[in-house]
Amino acid sequence: MAVFPEGVPCWVDVALPDVAAGKRFYGALLGWTFGPAAPDYGSYTQAFHDGRNVAALVAKPDGRMPTAWNVYLATADVFGTAVRARAAGGTVIMDPVRVGDFGTMAVVADPGGAVFNLWQAGSHAGFEEQGQPGSYGWAEVYTRAPERVDAFYEDVFGLRAEVDDEAGRPDFVRWVPRGRPAGARHAVSGRGLISSGYPEEMPAHFLTYFVVEDCDAAVAATGRLGGRVAIDPVTTPHGRSAVVVDNQGASFAVIDTRTRGDAPHPEGPPA
């Protein structure tokens, strides 16, 4: 069973009004297949790529809940991590709770308001495949409180903030786990800035990236499947990526990591 270091994204799931529609959308876009729904866990439905689990879809229990992708950060001690999160200025929205024998989770908001989940693995460690087309590739948090947020993730998880000079994003940092050398290849996630160009009502949030064979083809397929483009494709030193919205309103990014160039990431607001 894979072991994910502290603070490393180990799982993602999406809360949707209509799980069946989500299965059709992500099955066609990312080539996912799906296991049976788990009625005891909100019809939680595992997604697989080439037989390996890569994500999950879950029915929203309340229409007021956001339709959104959720990021889980690994921890070996969810109770201790929740205590550190409070001490570092975060908010524990849901105290740690066991999820059968799968593991123990908690829901936390960082000091800037971005919500994420903690995950202490039981029988479910997290991704069985990542970094390949059809699977998770990266996560970034976007905030208006960069100094407080960087300090929070360092205090809680030991993640070190480094400026991402390669991508031409002066307001962006990548996070590297404690004990790893500096450099992009050792980074596990990143932090961007919600600048003045974005709508005032945009909340702090995590953005999940999925790897695809061809960014432009994935963007075109998103439109055909009822989704839309939020940020047009751009080629950067890390790959060609775009931000899209699925057919129910959940935002995520697609990236072709084999197509690289010199352009910086866009800094304007989503379309």
From TrEMBL:
Entries under InterPro entries matching the protein: Anthracycline_SecMetBiosynth, Glyas_Bleomycin-R_OHBP_Dase, Glyas_Fos-R_dOase_dom, VOC_core
Domain VOC: 8-121, 135-257
Record-linked Gene3D superfamilies: 2,3-Dihydroxybiphenyl 1,2-Dioxygenase, domain 1
Cleaved signal peptide residues: none
Listed name of the protein: VOC family protein
